[in-house]
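Quiz preparation item.
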């Protein structure tokens, strides 16, 4: 703990890590004494008003210079750095494409050096994989946990999965990753395979498990599960492509409300899946 040594109008804070000069406002008694000094003596400047504070020494600059060197601050910055790098990479991948994005651009946008970027992600391929895992794979993992713990009907579970995906992926910048893969898969076949293994296959497996749950519980009609999964995913892919294509248009004569579209598609699909109650027999006349 530092100690404050009073030297009249000035004080020094001595601390193992921080040492800087402070200039506290003079006390009323000191101001009175100073007001009685001869006119030839230099006048003590009046304390600054609260509306326009005037600092006699660069305390703020000193603290700003010292703060990044403190252990706690350094650890917090280090913990946040991977997220900052991934956010910058996602922005540039979606805006410029995978081939056109350069490592130095990602580093600059994240506010770090190129060497720091390579310390975390040694190649652009590894950086792209980390972006996919952070913004897509993680949502699928959370969906699996949701389905494992869900106590309601399967229709409600699918509804919640769809809206969660929309809020986390479909309506966010991460939706551009699908368009990126479709546009550049031929140039990056290994990354396209990674995307299929990391995103397409797990998401299909999650939805297939949900549909099979509904069939096993007697909530859904017995249907080909794989075909049902494709039917569930197709409207989502259309919505992403439609938004990406029309986003650059100055006018769209057929606007599409994403939330309303999602609700309508879910309603149509679930009504087609759900077991319909048997119609009561009609009395013969």
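Solution:
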């Amino acid at each position: 703990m530092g100690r404050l040594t009073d030297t009249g109008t000035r004080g020094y804070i001595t601390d193992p890590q921080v040492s800087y000069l402070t200039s506290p406002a003079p006390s009323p008694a000191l101001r009175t004494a100073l007001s009685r000094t001869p006119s030839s003596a230099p006048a003590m400047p009046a304390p600054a008003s609260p509306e326009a504070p005037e600092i006699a020494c660069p305390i703020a600059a000193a603290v700003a210079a010292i703060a990044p060197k403190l252990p706690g601050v350094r650890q917090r910055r280090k913990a946040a750095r991977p997220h900052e790098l991934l956010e910058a990479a996602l922005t540039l991948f979606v805006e410029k494409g995978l081939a056109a994005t350069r490592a130095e651009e990602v580093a600059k946008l994240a506010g770090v050096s190129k060497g720091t970027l390579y310390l975390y992600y040694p190649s652009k391929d590894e950086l792209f994989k980390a972006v996919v895992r952070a913004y897509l794979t993680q949502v699928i993992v959370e969906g699996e946990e949701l389905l494992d713990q869900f106590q309601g009907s399967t229709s409600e579970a699918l509804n919640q999965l769809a809206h969660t995906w929309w809020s986390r992926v479909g309506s966010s910048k991460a939706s551009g990753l699908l368009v990126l893969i479709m546009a550049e898969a031929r140039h990056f076949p290994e990354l396209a395979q990674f995307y299929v293994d990391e995103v397409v296959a797990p998401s299909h497996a999650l939805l297939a498990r949900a549909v099979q749950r509904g069939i096993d519980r007697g909530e859904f009609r017995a249907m080909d599960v794989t075909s049902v999964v494709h039917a569930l995913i197709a409207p989502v892919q259309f919505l992403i492509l439609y938004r990406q294509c029309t986003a650059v248009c100055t006018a769209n004569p057929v606007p599409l409300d994403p939330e309303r579209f999602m609700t309508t598609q879910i309603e149509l699909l679930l009504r087609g899946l759900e077991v319909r109650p048997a119609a009561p027999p009609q009395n013969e006349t």
